[in-house]
Write a structure and sequence with these properties.
- The protein has 543 residues and is an alpha/beta fold.
- The protein is built from 22 helices and nine strands.
- The strands form two sheets. Strands 3-2-1-5-9-8 form a six-stranded mixed β-sheet.
- Strand 6 and strand 7 form a beta hairpin.
- The chain is elongated, with a radius of gyration of 26 Å.
- The chain starts with a helix and ends with a strand.
């Protein structure tokens, strides 16, 4: 009954390109970007992939690892075996899959370069799926693979979000053949749930789509297809449980929202009506007013109305993601783009219905999907504009961190080879293990290491006098030179002003006397230029 039922669901749709409610100047664009099908595996597709690889390779060659990337590799390599690593990972705030991939790759190759290598391979497979397996016409594929996420954030930036896009698109490619049989989709959802916490939300939203899709196809009665779905849902739920067990309770409590001065209930209600005002606004570089971003986000789902299970699931995913950002933790573009990848996944699965012409006589059945298609193109165009900006940054030498510059400085001076490095703020040292072999000291935690605990517990405040005292103590104890990295420019900061180091976390201050004493006791050997993140600093050597 499966094929007959599927055909019955698709009966109200024709396979000609939609036109109807779009004004004439947009009809050609609509037909071009929303064609019902296209030929596959031609030389044009190979050129698309080769061009993408060239653009990504250009950026990787100029990319400097920053702390969030290297922190994951450091954690992945901790412990004598994977079990010990997983114990250390518990509470970090991320599931284990990315760390297991990094540890496994490092066990095979034994080099730190596995960090960008694994990210590139995941991105390559993701983009290859889009080019060779998706039903999208090439102009739309070009928009997708030149987006900020697929041109930079999920492939050049070596984080766990790239594998999330890979699993989502793999699910899209496998869904038609495996919706009614086997456990492949459940296994992919289990893996998806263990990429990051937003991936776990998407796994739940996809289960919602799958259930509604079956009910629409087979009716509200128990069937073999529902039995198969239940088995896969159990597998996916196990994945979500593993994710939660790995992440919670988190020791990085400073990353969680502080509700001591605000109402989480108010924030939750506002997030449901205005998701563009949450971290989802990062999809528009936070340049659009929240309400405008919300209109675009909601509108981009409207083209899925011909396949209502997909429409309902994307709305549910949007609201749950917005709720998470509003109540649990802030996010950036890499987090917000997870929902966009989910949206593309359901467009992929529903492409036949999206590109079919409605035979409904009601105006809104024709107009709403047209609005959805235009809105999706606007969202994707903004992503491509951000992707072009990534290329500009790479071409002009804009980097995420000055850690590589510090590595070159230390390598150029033999007297710094055995130096101990401490920094203010502490987190400046997290990216350094990728570039230097020097010992790193965590000033607030009073220990050697390179993984900072973002906790509101322990010492919260520090000053320049304490930094200088620790530097003297380290040199007297170890007998090695001491390098001090300061993100605060001493000729620019205001004496006695309290500087917040972010996340309602730790603070730093320096009095005029402390600045004078510090300058007398140290020599500034390098001032690095700005970076795209906050990882730029002045380099001092203790006299």
């Amino acid at each position: 009954m499966t094929q007959l039922a599927d055909d019955a669901v698709l009966q109200p749709y024709r396979t000609e390109p939609q036109r109807g409610s779009l004004i004439r100047p947009l009809q050609i664009l609509d037909d071009w970007l929303f064609a019902p099908k296209r030929d596959r595996r031609s030389w044009r597709d190979i050129l698309l992939l080769a061009g993408w690889m060239a653009l990504v390779g250009f950026q990787i060659a100029r990319h400097v690892m920053w702390r969030d990337e290297v922190r994951a590799l450091t954690i992945a390599l901790n412990g004598d075996d994977p079990i010990a690593m997983l114990r250390g990972l518990h509470g970090e705030g991320h599931p284990a899959l990315w760390y297991l991939l990094l540890r496994g790759a490092h066990a095979v190759f034994g080099r730190g370069e596995v960090l960008p290598g694994v990210a590139f391979v995941a991105g390559l497979v993701t983009v290859a799926l889009l080019i060779f397996r998706s039903p999208f016409p090439r102009p739309l594929v070009l928009l997708l693979i030149t987006s900020h996420a697929l041109l930079f954030e999920y492939v050049v930036m070596a984080r766990n979000y790239g594998i999330l896009a890979l699993f989502l698109f793999a699910i899209a490619a496998c869904y038609p053949a495996h919706r009614d049989r086997g456990v492949l989709l459940g296994a992919l959802l289990l893996l998806l749930a263990n990429t990051n916490v937003v991936g776990a939300i998407m796994a739940g939203a996809f289960l919602l789509f799958w259930l509604f899709d079956l009910l629409e196809a087979h009716g509200w009665r128990w069937s073999p297809q529902l039995t198969n779905f239940a088995i896969n849902a159990i597998i996916a739920t196990i994945g979500v449980a593993i994710c939660a067990a790995t992440m919670l309770p988190t020791y990085n409590d400073a990353a969680a929202r502080d509700w001591s001065h605000a109402s989480p209930l108010t924030a939750a209600m506002l997030s449901l009506v205005n998701p563009g005002a949450t971290s989802l606004g990062a999809l528009f570089a936070n340049l659009l007013p929240g309400i405008v971003g919300s209109v675009l986000l909601f509108a981009a789902t409207l083209a899925l109305l011909p396949r209502r299970p997909a429409f309902l699931a994307t709305i549910a995913a949007l609201l749950l993601t917005s709720l998470f950002f509003a109540v649990a933790a802030n996010g950036a573009h890499r987090h917000a783009a997870v929902w966009l990848c989910f949206l593309i996944t359901l467009y992929w699965i529903s492409w036949r219905q999206v590109t079919a012409a409605s035979i409904s006589r009601t105006w809104y059945d024709r107009l709403l999907p047209a609005i959805g298609r235009v809105s999706l193109l606007l969202v994707l165009a903004i992503q491509s504009a951000a992707g072009i900006n990534d290329l500009r940054n790479a071409a002009t030498g804009v980097v995420a961190s000055r850690s590589a510059d510090l590595g070159r400085l230390i390598a150029s001076r033999a007297d710094l080879a055995n130096a101990v490095i401490l920094s203010e703020p502490e987190y400046l040292v997290e990216a350094l293990p990728y570039y230097v072999k020097n010992r790193l000291y965590l000033a607030r935690d009073h220990k050697f290491g390179s993984v900072v605990i973002f906790s509101r517990k322990g010492r919260m405040d520090s000053d320049l006098g304490e930094t200088l005292r620790l530097a003297h103590e380290l040199r007297n104890t170890i007998g090695a030179p001491v390098i001090i990295l300061l993100a605060y420019r001493l000729d620019e900061i205001t004496p006695d002003r309290i500087y917040d180091e972010g996340k309602d976390w730790r603070t730093f201050r320096a009095s005029a006397a402390q600045i004078r004493d510090f300058r007398a006791a140290t020599t500034m050997i390098r001032r690095f230029g700005p970076a795209r993140t906050d990882e730029s600093f002045d380099v001092y050597l203790l006299n």
